[in-house]
Amino acid sequence: MNKTVNQKAWFLVLPVLVLVAFSAVIPLMTVVNYSVQDTFGQNVFFWAGLDWFKEMLGSERMWSALGRQLMFSAIILAIEVPLGIYVALHMPKSGFWSSFCLVTMALPLLIPWNVVGTIWQIFGRVDIGLLGYTLEALGIDYNYTQNTLDAWITVIVMDVWHWTSLVALLAFAGLRSIPDAYYQAAKIDQASRWAVFRYIELPKMAGVLMIAILLRFMDSFMIYTEPFVLTGGGPGNATTFLSIDLVKMALGQFDLGPAAAFSLMYFLVILAISWVFYTVMTTLDAREGK
Prior knowledge:
Blueprint: H1 9-35, E1 37-39, E2 45-47, H2 51-57, H3 60-89, H4 96-106, H5 113-123, H6 130-137, H7 148-176, H8 180-188, H9 193-221, H10 225-230, H11 242-252, H12 256-289
Antiparallel strand pairs: 1-2
């Protein structure tokens, strides 16, 4: 017996496909077009082939920005993931204070990125900022606009303040999904607090933690607004990450061909690493389902 297939669902999907085509596919094709051609303006193009990709692969500037970006993302993940888990473990599980903590933790996530950069730019100034003034009063030489270490510390602390809440909220959701029977069994077995975390809580949080790591990696690897507003990529090129360097190349120098090739390689790196995270997540889900 042949089943009748209802194709009317495509009418609901079609608006989404059209929206994705205009917002993602068409701009991507434009970037691909610029990456293999050269132009001197007035819509006059000259075929360049893979020359821009070869130039970028041999560019010390790109590799330096990539190194800074990888180091920043690694530091961010190393701080925010354990800190988010720690906060989630010590949050109230229910009642008024649980709701209060959840709302408070969500507040930094509601602040626009450019406002976050502006807040910390003012906060760290020695003349009017509370942080800068306090450190100077304590005799600590702090200046994020001139000192490379100070700039890095400020950008990292700013990102930790802004995004640790996301990890904590996801970890808290994973903890709340654990049935009480697991804790009762651990109590009967007189398991230590570390054993409960190691063998009950951490495995049950693995799925949401992988999502948190994936989201935080993608966000940190594409970070632009906050460090640009705070330091402008300085001092020198100390905080010039990939996105900032790409914007400088495309808009500041108007090197559209190299910038397009740069952005495509940038996109492929993010896509490859995200695919690795996704593969790990699906593998963990498959193991839990057995």
